Amino acid sequence: DAGITQSPRHKVTETGTPVTLRCHQTENHRYMYWYRQDPGHGLRLIHYSYGVKDTDKGEVSDGYSVSRSKTEDFLLTLESATSSQTSVYFCAISRPGQPGTEAFFGQGTRLTVV
Amino acid sequence: GQNIDQPTEMTATEGAIVQINCTYQTSGFNGLFWYQQHAGEAPTFLSYNVLDGLEEKGRFSSFLSRSKGYSYLLLKELQMKDSASYLCAVRDSNYQLIWGAGTKLIIKP
Description:
heterodimer; A: mainly beta; seven-stranded mixed β-sheet; four-stranded antiparallel β-sheet; 0% helix; 54% strand; B: mainly beta; six-stranded mixed β-sheet; five-stranded antiparallel β-sheet; 11 strands
């Protein structure tokens, strides 16, 4: 257990509404990531953070924003949810630059946009 | 572009051996990872290769050939609990993980 908690675990929301997913870690890791996982696709990086208030875009960042005001919390916001954002969202922490260090994942959030 | 290919689905028999292949084309290489993911759960780390050769860890082994852009995960003495998806990921020159779509392994009695 790498001390990562995602909330909520499940959410159903309507098209056009804002949604915020939370990732909380107790490991004091500097790097945190948000991925989405869809059938037929690998995990795709949405945004990542390399420190408090330091974030950058991944390959599928359109329609998403993030914030990191504290080391332990990384928030993912869908400004106006669309049906194409129905997915399973995973938060992860890792220590890139340290050979052999792997990513640890939260339990995931299953989001359905209707 | 960056690409990781692995078979979509494989079937094997309990007690047997199965090899899951992964080929990759990425911008740089800083290690290859294998993860296991049971349905409805998060991926969990299985193995890491950064040098050519075989890494053995119990019933699981992982092989890497950097010159061929190729890896495989070998599972021996298959058990029903090994039914899961197996994800291959490569850490590129920017230390970002690039993921394959995963191989769903079905184990039959």
